[in-house]
Amino acid sequence: MQIVGYDATDGGLLVSDGDGAVEYVSLDPGTELSYRLGDRHCAGVVVDDGHRPCDADETPHCHEHTSTWVCARCTGTCLKDEMDCFDDHAVYLAAFAPETFKVGVTKAWRLEIRLREQGADRGAHVRTVANGRIAREIEAELAAEIPDRVRVPTKRAGLARSVDEAAWETLLDGFDPLETLDLDYGLDLSERPVAETVATGRVRGTKGRLLVLDHAGSTYAVDLRDLVGYEVVTGGTDRRLQSSLGAFG
């Protein structure tokens, strides 16, 4: 078996059985995971009829199986042969505890979904525009002052913390939000989880691509992307993991 992908929207792992079939493993709260991680190599590609493996050393994907969404690089000049983003788009601000902020764009109907995919704690819808080109132009202008991306270690460092209300409100003072969102992931954390790459334990939940697990008295935060490419067997981890302070209480 091999972990070949993840779903940051609903929280799930894609696990190939080695013969092409792919199982969706839910990461709903309370789910018990019991995978032991083995060797790691390229995760290949998942297509309509199943999984096509690859034994290249690069992880999580080799050059041949790495794809980049062209729209993610757009700053207003379309990089496709023909522009196709004619839906209403939202320009938004996102907050990550305690005081990290970013600007982004998404199709208007996907606003909350997109914020949850990123694991944002707060969101503010600041503009609605007629298409993606205009949205990307505005985003590029705002990105001169507000970052347009936040790295996973920064998001992980904010787990169990709250958004700095004063800093968030100060940022919003420069806008007139159409809507604000306060997002909850039900993790109920009293201390920051230990950063680990493990797939054994009871799921507390997911926050973007961060998976939060309880195992052996400690709580761990796992970047789902770091699991992709690992060969796995059932039976639970046999590694000695760092314990959280709460494990000694």
Automatic annotation (TrEMBL):
It holds the Pfam family DUF2797. It comes from the Archaea. This is DUF2797 domain-containing protein. It comes from Haloplanus litoreus.
